[in-house]
Design a protein that fits this description.
alpha+beta; two-stranded antiparallel sheet; 7 helices; binds iron/sulfur cluster
């Protein structure tokens, strides 16, 4: 990850994150009647692949270095355990709990990746079908307007809910948010992308 450790790269990346956070905050505020995210809920940090670019992984490591020794040890043990599980895994898509999740909270919150910041909203772009956050099926985000038999938001459920703001999807796919346009605007280089755990293999 050497080419991303430069100070300027992180400074530029932080400018990108400031921009991203402010956009996401607008989306979360607009969709507030459908969002049931709360402190202590860590469902998004479990059972996933967590795509991370080289730049994001390097920035996450920056956060890791600022943690106390005990928390670092917990995370290192988590990483080793997941690596062993992945090595023994025979299927095609290895899902795991993020090793940076400690005591049901993100230990590197300010340094978390882009995918972590978008969890909970409906992803929607020109090339993709609207993708609901998986937690609707657990009675959380958008569950108040989803027809569980159809696994989708329906007009009927929306009308029944009495909510005035319509449920909306946003262009927050990982590929879009890490595309070359943003690299050029913010003078950053995301580098290669792979599941978070693979940056530690
Ligand atoms: S980095 Fe933090 S927010 Fe992202 S998946 Fe891991 S624990 Fe969750």
């Amino acid at each position: 990850m050497n080419n991303h450790n430069g100070r300027n790269m992180f400074e530029n990346y932080e400018k990108y994150l400031t921009f991203l956070n402010s956009e996401l905050e607008k989306f979360f505020t607009a969709q507030a009647p459908y969002i049931f995210c709360k402190r202590g809920c860590s469902k998004c940090c479990q059972n996933a692949e967590f795509p991370y670019s080289e730049l994001e992984a390097a920035y996450l490591c920056r956060g890791f270095k600022q943690l106390d020794e005990n928390t670092q040890n917990i995370i290192s043990n988590n990483i080793n355990k997941i690596k062993q599980e992945k090595a023994a895994f025979k299927g095609t898509k290895f899902l795991y709990t993020c090793p940076f999740l400690t005591d049901n909270a993100c230990s590197v919150y300010q340094y978390r990746g882009i995918i972590c910041r978008t969890f909970g909203l409906i992803a929607n772009d020109d090339s993709e079908k609207a993708k609901l956050p998986f937690c609707f099926s657990e009675g959380l985000n958008y569950s108040n307007v989803v027809d569980l038999e159809k696994n989708q938001i329906t007009q009927e459920k929306y009308i029944q809910s009495g909510i005035k703001t319509p449920p909306l999807g946003y262009n927050i796919s990982y590929d879009f948010l890490t595309n070359p346009k943003f690299e050029s605007i913010f003078k950053i280089n995301f580098g290669g992308k792979k599941p978070l755990i693979d940056w530690f293999l």
